[in-house]
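Comment thread on ticket #2218

A.B. wrote:
> Attaching the input chain for the structure job we discussed in standup.
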Amino acid sequence: MKRKQSGFTLVEIAIVLVIVGLILGGVLKGQEMISNAKVRNVIDQSTAFQTAVYAFQDRFRALPGDFSNAAASINGVSSGANGGNGDGNGFINADNDRGLFWLHLSAAGFITGNFDGQPAPNNLNCPQTTCPRNAFGSAMMFSYGRAASGATTNAHEMRLGRNVPVNVLSEIDRKTDDGAAETGSVQLDRGVNRNQCRSSGQYDISRDTQDCGGVRIL
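C.D. wrote:
> Ran it. Output below, let me know if you need it in another format.
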C-alpha cells in the first residue's frame, strides 16, 4: 500500500517567499525612512539655529553669547557665566561665549529649550544642560574658529556634533551644499575622525557606519 506523501506545493512556497520578501522590504524601507528622518532633523536644526542667530542680531544688534548687555536686556539670562553677559568682542571664541550662546537664544525666545549658560569647552564635550543635542545624541556648538575640514581662515561655524554616520553626513552635505567633504558651507569636522570619514576630499561612504562630525559655516 502506497503512503501519501506530504509537503509544500509550489504555490504555497511561492506565497511564503512573497510574504518574506514583503517583510524584508518593509524592514529596509523602515530603516531608510528612519535615516532620512535623522538627515532632515539635523538639517532643520542647523537651519533653525542659523535663522535664530540672524533674528537675534536684528533685534539686539549683537551676537548671542557675545551680547555684553544681555542680563539687563533679556529676562532669565543673569544666571549664566559672567552674570549672563558676553564679552562684547564680536566673536564666540571662548568657553563662556559658547555656553552663553544657547542661553541668550533660548531666553530671548528664538529657540526652545532651557540652557544654563555655563562654559562650554571647544571639544564638543558639552553637557545637555548647556548645549542642545543632534539627532544622534551628541552636543552641538556655535563657535569661531577653523573646525571645518577644508577651512583656511577663521569663521563662525555651527558644529553639527559627533556620532553622525558618514553616509548620513554625506547626504546632509548633498542636500544642503556641494556634497564634497572639504569645500562649501557644509564640511567634515577636522577634529572628529576626519581621516576615517574621507577619501580624496570626498566622503568615504564605504565606511557607512563610521562616526563623523560636521560643520556648517555661517
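A.B. wrote:
> Thanks. Noting for the ticket: The CA atoms of residues 94 and 122 lie 8 Å apart.
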